[in-house]
């Protein structure tokens, strides 16, 4: 059991150090003001969250005893719920008030009011979703099952919002990879091609109009010739009839 405790403590410490380095080396690069307490909260939350995944791997690989894994899971769950429900909301409210230049004592008092409002909204989530609770009233919040259900609802909603934002923002962000600067020579070449295409279209339209005019003239000439032939034929027939009548007389 002592070896299991050492493994759990070392793994949590290693994960916390990894979270601290990730925060200071990656996320803090664009920030001039760095708070030590923010680093502690981030690294501890990162360690407990990653340790849940590590427990799954430990169970698959047979590392630690079943009782040690169960105790470790309980510790992770209680610490994460405490951070998500109590510590982080209050500290977020306090930090936002501090960023507006409000004095620390007044910020702490207003943050308490904001935190109590958050707890009430957190409780009302279970009322609207009709979570069954063994302990009625506000006591239902402080049971692990009810807290996990409410945190799960909030997490699913936030994941849906972030997924929708990512689905729109990612193509917009990476669209610049498919764009390139167009040079003036390329624009002029495209303009010349456009002018050539327009001239070719105009010439073909002129040819089409000329062909239509020739066809109309040919049709008119053919109809005129046919009329003349019919007139001449009628004149020939009348003269022949006269000759026949003269011969008969």
From TrEMBL:
Residue span, Golgi pH regulator conserved domain: 141-208
One Pfam match: GPHR_N
S-adenosyl-L-methionine keyword on record: no
Entry's transmembrane regions: 6-24, 36-57, 77-97, 109-131, 151-175
GO terms (BP aspect): response to abscisic acid
Keywords: Membrane, Transmembrane, Transmembrane helix
Top-rank taxon: Eukaryota
GO cellular component, as recorded: membrane
Keyword Transmembrane: yes
UniProt GO MF annotations: abscisic acid binding
Stored PANTHER family: G-PROTEIN COUPLED RECEPTOR 89-RELATED (PTHR15948), GOLGI PH REGULATOR A-RELATED (PTHR15948:SF0)
Protein name: Golgi pH regulator conserved domain-containing protein
